[in-house]
Request: fold
Amino acid sequence: MQVALCLALCLALVASALAADNAYLYIVQGIPGYDVSKNLDPGYPVDISIDGDCLVRGLTFSHTGGPLSFAAGTYDVQISEANSLAPCTNTAVITSQVMLEATTSTTIVAALSGSGECPLCCNSLTTSLR
Reply:
């Protein structure tokens, strides 16, 4: 019993130490549906895939997804119109990359380009956690 408890405690400490070097990502959905088309839901729900994994489903305008925890590195981000039956399977309306640094918190905002037309873009803000 003591060996199992000690092993569990050791694993928890190792996991905590590894997580301390993680980067955290928040995603703000900043695209009102009426900016894309007058016929779209104003909430314009989107699905978000990062490196091919569907991590956020149905995120609506003005809401934030996250925090999502990652190892430091560069990740491919695809944002598509939400599909409740098959999340992240619609064609991406945003394809971008985000670079995450260890011990930082990064927020990306899905927003229309300055001209108000597609393609869409991601803007990022990074804050150190130390």
Notes: Residues 22-128 form a domain with the Immunoglobulin-like fold (CATH 2.60.40). The longest strand covers residues 73-81. The beta strands are 23-29, 46-50, 53-59, 64-70, 73-81, 92-100, 104-112, 120-128. The radius of gyration is 18 Å.
